[in-house]
Structure to design on (406 residues):
């Protein structure tokens, strides 16, 4: 097995579902967390200057989704069938589109009241609710999003929407299948164990 | 072989590299182009309300990158090796990050002078040039971006950056390997044939 080092900030963000996959498959990895004060110095050594980066035997792989998809295959979380893999990709890209709006707002807006207004009046009705309605219906009473087994799409959705749910559970009232699914992923023994024992972060 | 219908606007955009892959592998597909005036009516029948969508035996697959990756596998444009596939993904995501800035500006800004100023003073120096420098060095005197064979990453890069190159060739002066690569993909017999015979579009 190669030597893996996952470099990210001392935060959950886009690295956390990758950490979940490592934990799920019991693949050892170095969880390299860059503190804010050290970033300016380390940035130059990071190809593309963005995190996360995964070092695979010291060779860098950038881009959070590329890393996640690579580790998903190593972790047995990728459907064998091309079309099932494509449905996973489409779900992951849909979640990414939604989350990028959140990240962009958080980066550009410090005012707590304006963030709250934006979430309630713009983000939720226009972007989040239509996606939640669609994936809630898609899930129905199935256990996982694609096929009969848990896949990396389940991890990516449960992590991203789980973060939003933890701050805005009221917004999920009409989407009980999604809420139940988030809980089911977090209750997988390896994930539960990771969440209980992971380093504490403020964001 | 399933029946494929690729639904997109009457434009190149994010559907065009998918059309290239179909053409490259000689996979027949219905090239369903929605005219602007018809979009309001058809939008409701599109899951998620966004294009492109690929109908696979009438079952919809959304998200341009998910479609491209699926067709890449069907077309023999996906490396077998997991790590090589991941390098393709990382390149494709890097190009996507760059192109999303272009799309966002084009959607929000109609003024031609402001678009030109933005391109020269913001987009090119801050976003495009660093990526071009990196991928130009990565390519060096290699023929293709990943491994020894042409892959979907070559198609995605050559299409996206080829569009920018066609309007701003002066910006590519320091990146001759990238320019040569764009030309090499466009000169693949199937792609050359597609480009010569494709429907004319204004954008």
């Amino acid at each position: 097995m190669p030597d893996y080092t996952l470099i990210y900030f001392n935060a959950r963000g886009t690295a956390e579902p990758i950490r979940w996959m490592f934990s799920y498959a019991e693949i050892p990895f170095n969880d390299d967390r860059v503190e804010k004060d050290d970033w300016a110095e380390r940035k130059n050594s990071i190809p593309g200057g963005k995190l996360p980066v995964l070092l695979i035997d010291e060779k860098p792989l950038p881009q959070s989704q590329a890393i996640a998809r690579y580790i998903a295959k190593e972790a047995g979380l990728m459907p064998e069938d091309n079309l099932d893999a494509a449905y996973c990709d489409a779900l992951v890209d849909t979640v990414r589109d939604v989350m990028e709006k959140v990240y962009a707002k958080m980066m550009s807006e410090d005012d707590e009241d304006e963030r709250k207004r934006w979430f309630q009046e713009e983000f939720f009705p226009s972007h989040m609710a239509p996606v939640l309605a669609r994936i809630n219906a898609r899930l129905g009473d199935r256990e996982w999003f694609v096929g009969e087994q848990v896949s990396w799409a389940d991890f990516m959705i449960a992590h991203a929407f789980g973060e939003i749910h933890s701050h805005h559970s009221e917004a999920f009232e009409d989407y009980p299948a999604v809420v139940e699914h988030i809980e089911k992923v977090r209750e997988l023994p390896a994930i539960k164990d990771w969440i209980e024992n992971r380093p504490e972060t403020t964001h």
